[in-house]
Specification:
Order of helices and strands: EHHHEHEHHHHHEHHEHHHEHEH
Structural class: alpha/beta
Shape: globular
Strand order of the largest sheet: 5-4-6-7
CATH architecture of the largest domain: 3-Layer(aba) Sandwich
Strand content: 5-15%
Largest sheet: 4 strands, parallel
Distance between the termini: 65 Å
Length: 363
């Protein structure tokens, strides 16, 4: 068995650390790119959303490198993501790729026994004891928290850095150094060292940079290729950014859903405008918009793929929040036809709007 998985931001780092630790073969697909999107768009149904198409490209590129098993999380909720695994499995079979799928659905949806059976498939080729496997899983979880924390801090400090581009360079080098080691313990130590380096980056606290919240559909928010690397672009502009949806957040949210203790702040914040779950992360998007306003951000950017039903509902609510709170919110809808030049123009226009609002307030 040689496992692969679709890209979702920095998740491949934690996955690599886990599989290196337990000694299971794996293939990390090339970082999501235009070639993957082209292949995925060619073979996917036209009406399917951007994440589906990029994932198909990830799978095919990994299968061509020897992968025979696809690991993907699932969802039994109203979002079409719940159908991804079946649709993707059938699509790949029609293309002549004979691969197995391991779908990790929520434990409540498929039952504890079935969930454990699927988890056991992932580690079936490992020669490690159960105790050692658990230890490796905890190490991977620690790595995920570290890399999420490093990214969050780097994206925010970019607005205060003395030497422009230093946070971005450090962040990219951190990812490269972690990927280049096959020792899982060393990988965690590398992440810890970069967390310390980030603390010592020279910053100018007298600066008052624009602060923007990035929110929306979870895949498009977390996977940089799908949003044309918006956080990197905002770092180049000297903007502080923050997003609440991260891989770490997703795991915690999934674990606490059983007890209804998940994302309490976001749920409370969304109650005025969207008190019910409608699928995807629509409610979280609304909650983030309200919290971003309360936390003193200058504006927010909503990202979602063309045709995403939950986010279309969010998009219809956000103008009301923007008007009620006098809080600028811009929506960017992504698909395989998104052009970078027009995309950059819209971002620059939004930043110009936020700067002019500040000037008006000072006058």
């Amino acid at each position: 068995m040689k496992i692969t998985f679709p890209h979702l931001g920095n998740v491949y780092i934690a996955a690599k650390i886990f599989f290196d630790g337990i000694g299971v073969e794996y293939v990390i697909p090339p970082v999501s790119n235009k070639a993957a999107l082209k292949v995925g768009s060619l073979y996917s149904p036209e009406e399917m959303c951007l994440p589906f198409k990029i994932m198909i490209g990830n799978y095919i590129q990994a299968i061509e490198k020897g992968a025979d098993t696809v690991l993907i999380v699932g969802s039994c909720g109203p979002c079409r993501f719940g159908e991804y695994s079946e649709l993707q499995m059938n699509l790949l079979k029609k293309l002549g790729y004979n691969v197995n799928f391991i779908v990790l659905d929520y434990c409540d949806d498929i039952g504890k026994e079935e969930f454990l059976r699927r988890v056991s498939k992932i580690v079936s080729d490992s020669k490690k004891s159960n105790g050692e496997i658990i230890k490796c899983a905890l190490r991977a979880w620690k790595a995920q928290k570290l890399v999420d924390g490093i990214e969050e801090k780097a994206h925010y400090l970019a607005g205060y850095e003395v030497n422009k581009g230093e946070c971005k360079k450090l962040l990219h080098k951190c990812r490269m150094d972690v990927v280049n080691t096959t020792n899982s313990e060393e990988a965690v130590n590398i992440l810890k060292s970069y967390r310390k380096k980030l603390i010592h980056i020279p910053i100018d606290k007298s600066k008052n940079p624009i602060k923007i919240s990035v929110m929306g559909e979870i895949y498009t928010v977390i996977e940089p290729f799908s949003n044309l690397y918006i956080e990197d672009k905002l770092m180049d502009y000297g903007v502080c950014t923050k997003r609440m949806l991260t891989p770490t957040w997703w795991v915690k949210d999934a674990a606490l859903k059983t007890f209804k203790l998940n994302s309490i702040k976001m749920r409370k914040a969304s109650n005025e405008y969207l008190p019910l779950y409608i699928g995807g992360h629509a409610r979280e998007c609304i909650g983030e918009a309200v919290l971003s306003y309360k936390n003193g951000f200058d504006g927010a950017i909503q990202l979602f793929p063309m045709g995403c039903m939950p986010e279309i509902v969010s998009k219809s609510i956000l103008p009301t929040i923007s008007r009620d709170k006098d809080f600028p919110i811009m929506t960017l809808v992504m698909d395989e036809m998104s052009g970078e030049n027009g995309y950059i123009t819209r971002i620059e226009a939004f930043l110009d709007l936020l700067e002019r609002r500040r000037e008006r307030c000072i006058i």
